[in-house]
Amino acid sequence: MPRIIVQAVEGRTLEQKRHLVRAVTEGVVEAFDVAPETITIVIEEIRRDHIAKAGILAADRKAST
Amino acid sequence: MPRIIVQAVEGRTLEQKRHLVRAVTEGVVEAFDVAPETITIVIEEIRRDHIAKAGILAADRKAST
Amino acid sequence: MPRIIVQAVEGRTLEQKRHLVRAVTEGVVEAFDVAPETITIVIEEIRRDHIAKAGILAADRKAST
Amino acid sequence: MPRIIVQAVEGRTLEQKRHLVRAVTEGVVEAFDVAPETITIVIEEIRRDHIAKAGILAADRKAST
Amino acid sequence: MPRIIVQAVEGRTLEQKRHLVRAVTEGVVEAFDVAPETITIVIEEIRRDHIAKAGILAADRKAST
Amino acid sequence: MPRIIVQAVEGRTLEQKRHLVRAVTEGVVEAFDVAPETITIVIEEIRRDHIAKAGILAADRKAST
What we know:
The structure is a homohexamer.
Chain A: E1 3-9, H1 14-32, E2 40-46, E3 51-53, E4 56-57
Parallel strand pairs in A: 1-2
Antiparallel strand pairs in A: 3-4
């Protein structure tokens, strides 16, 4: 603990995910004054046909969400 | 916000998912009196070898769950 | 199954929650063609000092989220 | 209810998952004195490039997590 | 990891929760052949006015869920 | 989206939570190159009698988790 779950629409590169877990870990270390080793981050990617806003799937919109 | 997560065993069609996000969004709009644009719905499909009832995986049952 | 989780900022009345579970259940029945008895809905209320947008807690904003 | 979610790094066999849902169901039955039929277990597998400790993805470590 | 989340309607005693985390940990150790120290269990209690089946809140039913 | 959930044992101050949502938002903006307004953060506090490691509740340990 702490455990951080990052939910995002699919499409980020491995390099962006590496950057994400480094930057978010630093943010939690700084705010909560805990050791980096105590921090777990889990990324959950969501398919564009599995997320909707205003009743319309992202996959069915022209522009992206 | 609100954010709605729908967890279901895999196997629904894209048309059923379109119907789902439309119908659930309408239900939340009606009950909470919020604008549709504020409502996000996420669908999480669960594999049949990843869900169990009474200690038996759905994939190992004859009839479906 | 299906299981639906509704996450919303705290502040809805019991009557609104009753309305919500009725309306969302109807939506899922209609879209997925399942019996109402198979549908579970869980409401998760979020405190205003536990949710942030653009890096600012809802509790610290003048207008509500 | 109860519903149990088991989150683990990918890589377990089907036989291990069968064993897991049987053993965890027995544990909940014993502790909460409920019927096995009331217990649902969901397994969530996490990819090694989607989990990080101390700011480093499991996929980028030599030894496993 | 693994991390296990147990969702249950409120009302279990502290002694039942102690029993639960001991019994579920043993089940996961046995099935996945991991050390007990790697296993985290989180209990999430759900209020009876926050869970519904067939469109009716548990708090509004005579018999319990 | 993205949506970030931070799970931590209870006991942080409001000032630490303010710091957290600011720092984590900055980390996600930097890594994913998105506008801060698209980022939601939710904090989930866990009671010490609701989290266990190695089969023992944090509330039952002398030292903290």
